[in-house]
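input
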Amino acid sequence: MRGRKPDKFVLKAKDKTSLVELLRDGQTPLKVARRAQILLQRANEEQRVVLLGDKVEQDETTIWRVCERYRQGGLAAALYDAPRPGRPRVFSPRRTPGD
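output
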C-alpha cells in the first residue's frame, strides 16, 4: 500500500447515526466501541490513519481492516466478528479442594 493514495472512505448517513447511538449506549463492548470510533473518525476527510491509530490506540493495520470490512460487508461486518469454526468453548464449574 505504500506510495499509493488510499480510496476515499464514505460512511452512510444511517450508519453514522447508528454508530453514534452505539457509542452513547453504556452497554457496548469495548471492541465494538473502538471499531465504531474508527469508522466515525475515518469518515472525517482530514483524519489521517496514523493520527487515528494514536487516538483510538489501535494499529494502522487494524484501522485499514475495519474500514475494508465496512466497504465489503457493511456495518455489521465491520463491528462484529464472524463466527469462528470449531467447537465452542465449554467452561466447567471451579473445583473445590473437597472434590
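quick obs: The first helix runs from residue 13 to 24.
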